[in-house]
Amino acid sequence: MSAGVLLHEVSKSFGAARTPALTGVTLAVADGSCTAILGPSGSGKSTILRVIAGLDEVSGGTVHVDGVDVAGVPSEQRGIGLVFQRPLLFPHLSVLDNVAFSHRVGGASRAGSRRHAQHYLDLVQLGGFGGRPIQALSGGQEQRVAIARALAAAPRVLLLDEPFSALDPALREDMHLLLDDVRSALSPTIILVTHDREEAAAVADRIAVIHNGALLQHDTVDRIYHRPASTRVSRLMGGLN
Ligand code: ADP
Ligand code: MG
Fold this sequence. Notes:
This protein is 37% helix and 23% strand. The protein is globular, with a radius of gyration of 18 Å. It is an alpha/beta fold. Helix 2 crosses helix 3, helix 2 (95-105) runs parallel beside helix 4 (139-152) and helix 3 (110-123) crosses helix 4 (139-152). The chain binds adenosine-5'-diphosphate (ADP) and magnesium ion. The site of adenosine-5'-diphosphate (ADP) has 10 residues, from helix 1.
């Protein structure tokens, strides 16, 4: 089993007699690569991330992270960093201590964790902001802190659920450059859920198109646009909102 993330025939239903959120999704994201998941609202994008992260258990099928079947493995032991649309930061901690938090949980000293955190704050270009309170940050800065915090735990896999959708277009472009920097510096395997086709094309190696809980196509950006596997894919790529 290779590194990266591998879903095999994954299904997920919530409760009884409901339309399944995921049906037989098989998806391989190679180690160090970036796949963007595109699809309409309610198509199962977040559910894919949640079953990889262990926030939801699968109803059927298997999930491998870095070659390990993670069934029953607690979320915090899966080596995964998560960033959501709205950053969940600790309002009572400074910027630096927010980033240092996950390292502290690992048992490191306060000074060691702060040095470690400073490195990731530098990476997201907030090196001078460590002493500030969270409340003093803009939305884009908060999102960068959330990314630094996720990275500080040294995850092999980074899962991003519409992380930039609340930001204005100029800031979103900065975030795309930041992801490039993160990829060059750390080479995590990245799965990015987005509504934004241009964002997917700008940052990802591959796009996974999902509709009604089914994966329609997972392919290079170029092939998704020029060799869509079905009219549904071309329609979704032409008319996502
Ligand atoms: P997306 O992220 O693509 O908008 P989701 O993965 O959040 O879609 O949801 C996929 C489907 O699963 C939707 O129909 C949604 O209502 C349903 N769903 C997601 N989470 C839950 C839950 N905790 N309980 C019940 N239904 C859920
Ligand atoms: Mg979602």
